[in-house]
Specification:
Layout lengths: L12 H7 E12 L38 H13 L3 E2 L6 E4 L9 E4 L6 E10 L2 E14 L3 E5 L11 E5 L6 E7 L9 H19 L11 E11 L9 E6 L2 H20 L7 E6 L4 E7 L9 E2 L10 H9 L5 H12 L3 H9 L3 H9 L4 H19 L10 H12 L5 H12 L5 H8 L7 H14 L1 H8 L6 H11 L6 H11 L2
Parallel strand pairs: 11-12
Antiparallel strand pairs: 1-9, 1-10, 2-5, 3-4, 3-14, 5-6, 6-9, 7-8, 10-11, 12-13
Helix pairs in contact: 3-4, 8-9, 8-10, 10-11, 11-12, 13-15, 13-16, 15-16
The chain binds zinc ion (ZN).
C-alpha cells in the first residue's frame, strides 16, 4: 500500500461546496442513568473510587452470568419511540469480540443485526429551515472500563510510563443511536449535525433517561463525513472522527473534515477510510486507525442471555407515557414565557430551553431567566468555547441570584459579579457574596454619609434639585453608586437625596 496522505492542504469552506456535496452521519453513545449496570447489580453512579463498583459479572470472571436490566430496556424503548422509531418484537444481544485491557471479558455485549430500535427520524431546525435526520437504528450495549495513561505528553498510550484501568464504568448501560448518511444539507452540514445532537440531547433530557453530560462522557459522538463530486448523487469514502465531546466540536469536526477531504480529492488522491482523533484546542483531526466496513468482530448471539421480546402492550403503555414532544413543548413555552419568535429561536439555538425551563421552575421569571442565560452566561460560554450546559452554573443558582435581585439584596451589576465568582469556582452563591462583599448597602447610616458627600461635591446640581428639578438627582445617584462600588440600593439613594434637598 502506498503512503496515505493525511492532508494535502485545506480547502476553504465555500470552495468545498463549489465542487463537492457533503454527507455526514452520527453515531451517538448515551450512558443511561439506571441505578445499576446493564447485566449485574453493581451501582452505575459516576465518580466512585476506582474499581469499587465491580463484581464477577462486570469483571468477566469465569462462571459469572449476566441478567438484563429491565429498566435499561425500558429506557431504550422510550428513546426509540421518542425518535419515531419501530420497536423490535424480538431481538437478541450479541458478543462483539475484540481485545482491549479495559474490557475484561474480551468481548462487548452489544446488539448486532437485531437492534431493539430501527427506522426512526428526528426533524431539526437550522436558521428557520427543517431538516429530517433519518435514524437507522438504536441498540443496547454495555460500556467498557476506563483506561488512564500516566506519563507522556499526550495522555495517549504512546509514550506513557504505565496505564491504570478502572472497571467501574464496565457494564454501564449504553444506547448507541446511529443515523443514516444525511445528504442534501450543503453549506448547512456542520450546523445540521450540531442541531441534531442538540435536539437529541433535549429529547434525552426530557425523557430523563440520561444526564447527557458531553463533558463527562455520558454522551459521546462519532462523526462520519464524506464528500462526493457535486450533484453526482453518490457517496464518497468516509472518515469517522471519534469522541467529539461538545456540540460546538461536532460542528467544527464536520467543517474541518470537509476542508481536509476536499484538499485530498482536489489533488487526485483517495480518502483513506479510517478513524480520526479530534483535537479540541485546534479544531483539527489526526489519523487514528484504519477502519473497513467489515471489521471482523466475530459477532455471534450471546448464549447467556435470553432474547428481549417486549410485549406490544408494554410498548404502547410506554408510548402513552412519553413526555410532550419537543416541538410542542417549544411552542407551548413560547406562549407561556411571552417570548418573540426571534427570542425563542435564539434560546433554542443556544441550547438554553431546558436551562431556562429549570430556572423558571425554581421561581425566576421567564424574562429574568432569559436575560441571565442568553446575555451574561452565553457570553461566558462563547468566551470559553463551551456549551451553556457545560459552564458549571446551574438553573438553581441562576434562580437563587435572581431571587436576591428581586429582594434588592443584589443589583444587576452585583449579580454579574456573583456569576463571575460562580464561573471561577469560588463556591456557592452565598459564599461568593460573603467573600466578595457583594450585598447591597441599604443601611441609611452608611448611605446617608455617601449622599451628603455627593451633595457637597456637586452644589450646582443640589441647587437644581432644591429648585424642583428632580431629574437632576441622577448625577448624584451616579456619584453615590460609584462611591459605594455599585453596592447601593439606587431607589433608596434617590429617596434620601430628595429628602435631604426637600
Ligand atoms: Zn458488576
Amino acid at each position: 500500500m502506498t503512503a496515505v496522505p493525511d492532508s494535502l492542504g485545506l480547502v476553504g469552506f465555500d470552495e468545498v461546496l463549489e465542487r463537492y456535496d457533503p454527507a455526514f452521519g452520527l453515531e451517538v453513545h448515551v450512558e443511561l442513568n439506571t441505578n445499576t449496570k446493564m447485566f449485574c447489580g453493581c451501582p452505575a453512579t459516576f465518580g466512585g473510587e476506582p474499581n469499587s463498583q465491580v463484581c464477577p459479572t462486570c469483571l468477566g470472571l469465569p462462571g459469572s452470568m449476566p441478567v438484563v436490566n429491565a429498566k435499561a430496556v425500558e429506557s431504550a424503548i422510550r428513546i426509540g419511540l421518542a425518535l419515531n422509531g419501530s420497536i423490535a418484537e424480538w431481538c437478541r444481544f450479541a458478543r462483539k469480540n475484540y481485545f482491549y485491557p479495559d474490557m475484561p471479558k474480551n468481548f462487548q455485549t452489544s446488539q448486532y443485526d437485531e437492534p431493539i430500535v430501527y427506522d426512526g427520524y428526528l426533524d431539526v431546525e437550522v436558521e428557520g429551515e427543517t431538516y429530517r435526520v433519518d435514524i437507522e437504528r438504536a441498540h443496547m450495549e454495555e460500556d467498557t472500563g476506563k483506561t488512564t495513561h500516566i506519563g507522556g505528553a499526550t495522555g495517549r498510550i504512546h509514550g506513557a510510563d504505565y496505564s491504570l484501568v478502572d472497571y467501574n464504568r464496565a457494564g454501564i448501560p449504553l444506547i448507541e443511536i446511529v443515523t443514516r448518511p444525511i445528504l442534501g444539507t450543503g453549506a448547512k452540514a456542520p450546523l445540521v449535525a450540531k442541531a441534531y445532537v442538540a435536539a437529541l440531547r433535549e429529547i434525552l433530557l426530557g425523557l430523563g433517561v440520561s444526564d447527557v453530560r458531553m463533558d463527562q462522557g455520558s454522551m459521546r459522538c462519532d462523526v462520519n463525513l464524506s464528500l462526493s463530486p457535486k450533484d453526482s448523487g453518490t457517496l464518497g469514502t468516509r472518515t469517522e472522527t471519534k469522541n467529539v465531546n461538545s456540540l460546538r466540536s461536532v460542528e467544527r469536526a464536520v467543517r474541518f473534515e470537509m476542508s481536509r477531504h476536499a484538499g485530498i480529492l482536489d489533488a487526485g488522491e483517495a480518502i483513506f477510510q479510517e478513524t480520526r482523533h479530534f483535537h479540541e484546542d485546534t479544531g483539527t483531526t489526526s489519523a487514528g486507525r484504519p477502519k473497513s466496513d467489515a471489521d471482523d468482530y466475530r459477532y455471534f448471539p450471546e448464549p447467556d442471555l435470553v432474547p428481549v421480546a417486549p410485549s406490544r402492550e408494554w410498548v404502547e403503555e410506554l408510548r402513552a407515557s412519553l413526555p410532550e414532544r419537543t416541538a410542542d413543548k417549544r411552542a407551548r413555552l413560547q406562549v407561556e414565557w411571552g417570548y418573540s419568535d426571534l427570542e425563542m429561536r435564539d434560546v433554542w439555538a443556544a441550547g438554553a430551553l431546558s436551562l431556562i425551563e429549570a430556572t423558571v421552575a425554581e421561581g425566576a421569571s421567564a424574562q429574568a431567566a432569559r436575560k441571565w442565560w442568553m446575555a451574561e452566561l452565553s457570553r461566558s460560554a462563547n468566551d470559553r468555547g463551551v456549551e451553556l450546559a457545560e459552564l458549571g452554573v446551574t438553573p438553581v443558582q441562576v434562580a437563587e441570584v435572581q431571587k436576591l435581585v428581586d429582594a434588592k439584596t443584589l443589583t444587576d451589576k452585583l449579580a454579574r459579579q456573583v456569576f463571575e465568582g460562580l464561573l471561577a469556582g469560588e463556591g456557592t452563591v452565598s459564599e461568593i457574596i460573603d467573600a466578595r462583599g457583594l450585598a447591597v448597602v441599604s443601611d441609611d447610616g452608611a448611605l446617608g454619609a455617601a449622599v451628603d458627600e455627593a451633595i457637597a461635591a456637586q452644589p450646582a446640581v443640589a441647587d437644581k434639585i432644591r429648585g424642583g428639578n428632580q431629574a437632576a438627582a441622577g448625577a448624584l445617584i451616579g456619584a453615590v453608586m460609584k462611591a459605594t462600588g455599585g453596592k447601593a440600593d439606587a431607589k433608596r439613594v434617590r429617596e434620601l437625596i430628595l429628602e435631604k434637598l426637600a
